[in-house]
Amino acid sequence: MSEPYFHSFTFPHLAAFLTGCAVIAAFLVAGRRGGETELRARALLTFINLAAYAMSQAARGMATRGQDLDNLVPLHLCDIASFMAGFALITRHPTLAALTYFWGLAGTIQGVLTPALDIGFPHPVAWAFFIHHFAVIGAALYLPVVMGWRAEGAIWKSPLKAMAWLNVYVAVALIANGVLGTNFGFLSHKPLNPSLLDHLGPHPWYILVLEGIALVFFLLLVLPVRERRRA
Questions:
Q1: Contact 108, 189 (CB under 8 A)
Q2: Mean pLDDT over all residues of the chain?
Q3: Domain count, the chain
């Protein structure tokens, strides 16, 4: 029996989105309590982020539809972001924290609003997809709200660093797509599901437009987390 298809902007999508938001809120509330409660919340969020890829692979293994390299190789931006988020929560490394924050809130949120997902609920693939993406978003918020991470230096420094690393990813993904025939980062073509990319022009011009949008988002996102200098 074939798996159900996922359809964006339906009740299951809305329910998954609201549930994910509620779970993130619970993590933030638990983290703000401090002490053992914060340690447990951070440990669980770290584990989910580091286990997200394995969880997705296990879920895909239960599907009757054949896997392609796009799902087997962890080179989508959100795959990399979940690993970075896990290690950022452990190490508090400033670069990992910055990339988790900017990539998670500017990019991964788009993933839950317009999911590039072919299998719907109640299949484990759908559950794994939303757990994976909301874990990254949760870490992106947990770092500044609970752990007190702030963007260091001039107000433009962290956004430009995030853009520079984003373009490193773009270069790697383009090479991988050319060699493997994949669509990492949706740089070869737009996803089949409705998404923001549908309104940004044809390939490859939508990639340049998306870079401009990413920079604007990064510059806006730095405002609430900029390091304030004492008088």
A1: no
A2: 93
A3: 1
